[in-house]
Write a structure and sequence with these properties.
229 residues; Arc Repressor Mutant, subunit A; 2 domains; single chain; mainly alpha; disordered C terminus; Tetracycline Repressor, domain 2
């Protein structure tokens, strides 16, 4: 090999090395963040599109081909994110329950009185159940995702949150103590899930009042009536 060719190869190798080194120093963080943001956006679009299809046309309308077309991506790209429709529904429900947990936790933290806190949290949960039904998230889809362990964990956290709110209310004399807070939480969550089948907000309020009557020591009177009694 000639000296000139050796020098050319040497310079080429080092030029490539310098470019890669420069790229590694200046680009990766921005590139990585952009890719992650893009993947989150695509994933969210898939979840939202799927639930829009379910709400408008029913669960059977949500095929992988139709989801890809409605989202504006190729089927191959869709399969890079999710293996099937059940996985999409599970991911959507996990995101949904997690967001609602954060909302309920905020309500719990900002409500000082244990009796008012119990009513506020149960009312918010009933409104969530009612809203999910109005947005087309039906029982068939719920039955599918509730079996998944990915969803079971946030649902346990939801149960624990309601249980703790009931325990605080019981300690303050606002909730019954002849039944454990854990059993009362199970009762409340199952009872208030019926809000998904109710036709109006007024009906949801009546359901909350009925549920509170089952767990409160005073038959479910509003917190502002405690001291008047």
């Amino acid at each position: 090999m000639s000296a000139a060719l050796q020098n050319t190869l040497y310079l080429s190798r080092h030029s490539v090395h310098d470019v890669v080194a420069l790229y590694s120093r200046e680009v990766p963080r921005l590139w990585s963040e952009t890719i992650e943001a893009h993947r989150r956006d695509v994933r969210d679009a898939i979840l939202d599109t799927t639930m829009s299809l379910v709400a408008e046309h029913g669960l059977r309308s949500a095929t992988m081909s139709r989801i890809a077309e409605a989202t504006g991506i190729g089927r191959a790209t869709l399969y890079k994110y999710f293996p099937d429709v059940d996985a999409i529904l599970t991911a959507w429900h996990h995101r949904h329950v997690t967001a609602h947990l954060e909302h309920l936790a905020t309500i719990r933290q900002r409500t000082a009185d244990p009796g008012a806190r119990l009513e506020a949290v149960l009312t918010a949960y009933a409104q969530i159940a009612h809203g999910m039904s109005r947005h087309g998230y039906g029982q068939e889809a719920g039955t599918l995702v509730h079996r998944d362990e990915q969803v079971a964990e946030p649902r346990r956290r939801l149960h624990d949150l309601v249980r703790d709110v009931l325990a605080e209310a019981a300690d303050a004399g606002y909730a019954r103590t002849d039944v454990t807070p854990g059993e009362l939480a199970t009762f409340c969550l199952h009872a208030l899930a019926a809000a998904s089948d109710l036709p109006s907000h007024a009906a949801v309020e009546r359901l909350v009042a009925l549920t509170l009557a089952g767990v409160r020591t005073d038959g479910g009177r509003p917190p502002d009536q405690y001291e008047a009694s």
